[in-house]
Design a protein that fits this description.
This protein is of the alpha+beta class. The protein has helices at residues 9-15, 30-40, 99-106, 143-160, 196-210, and strands at 2-7, 19-23, 28-29, 52-55, 58-60, 65-66, 72-75, 88-93, 113-120, 136-141, 164-172, 174-177, 181-189, 213-218, 223-226. The strands form 4 sheets. It has a 5-stranded mixed beta sheet with strand order 2-1-7-4-5. The chain has a 4-stranded mixed beta sheet with strand order 8-11-13-9, sandwiched between helices. The two termini are 28 Å apart.
Length: 238
């Protein structure tokens, strides 16, 4: 069977394309796919041991079986649409964040507190392997899967903090300058002591683990894709 594999971030750069085609003998698993890619696309071989695979917008594993009509994506470790029990706001967008719209969406007459986390582009990273000075960042996302994972994070928040009423998760993409907002997480509750602080912290930490978003740090003389180290397990799928 012939399948098309979407590529993101480092993998896309190394291949020079947004996707690659791969011929597999049936039955075929993710392990078979990675073996064939390593043999047929030398430029990807060094990245494949740490790469993550998604099949139909769910994390896949070596023994996951593949079918010709599957949507398959390959990407480095990570640095909406369904009915929710509480108000939500999920977005992957290049636009500036409309905070008032978010507060209107997740607030209400029973909400007395909204706790939020806001991430910004900083000019100095001071991390090994990255440019010492950052001129700007470039963010990209596997958008369809990213919004599904945002919804999953909201459900996980409600399981742990059932008094949290509304959840907002926003990730900006594209070219972002120093001091631009990159990420926004907000959790609404009746009172500030009903888990809103803890839930907002959980939301940003979990986004960094399972939402497929990556950034490229661009400095005066070089640029580097920032990759994480978290390896999803089957428990990260719903």
């Amino acid at each position: 069977m012939n399948i098309e594999v979407k590529l993101f971030a480092t993998l896309r750069d190394r291949a020079g394309h947004n996707s690659v085609s791969c011929a597999l003998e049936e039955p075929a698993s993710v392990r078979d796919l990675l073996d064939v890619l390593a043999a047929t696309h030398e430029e990807l071989a060094a990245s494949l041991p740490s790469a993550l695979v998604a099949v139909n917008k769910q994390f896949a594993f070596p023994d996951t079986l593949l079918h010709e009509d599957d949507e398959i994506a390959l990407f480095p470790p990570v640095s909406g649409g369904e009915s929710m029990a509480h108000p939500t706001y999920f977005a992957i967008s290049a636009d500036e964040i409309d905070f008032e719209a978010i507060y209107q969406q997740i607030g209400g007459p029973d909400v007395g507190a909204i706790v939020s986390f806001t991430g910004f582009v900083r000019g100095q990273t001071n991390r090994q392997g990255l440019p010492p000075q950052t001129l700007y960042l470039e963010y990209e996302a596997y958008s369809g899967m990213a919004e599904e994972k945002m919804a999953q994070i909201a459900r996980e928040i409600w399981q742990q903090w059932p008094l949290v009423k509304g959840v907002a998760i926003v990730q900006r993409i594209g070219h972002l300058e120093i001091r631009d907002i990159t990420t926004f997480i907000a959790c609404a509750a009746g009172h500030r002591d009903q888990g809103a602080f803890e839930a907002a912290r959980y939301g940003i930490d979990r986004l960094k683990e399972i939402v497929p978003v990556w950034k490229r740090e661009v400095g005066p003389n070089s640029s580097t894709w920032v990759e994480g180290s978290y390896k999803p397990t089957d428990s990260d799928n719903e």
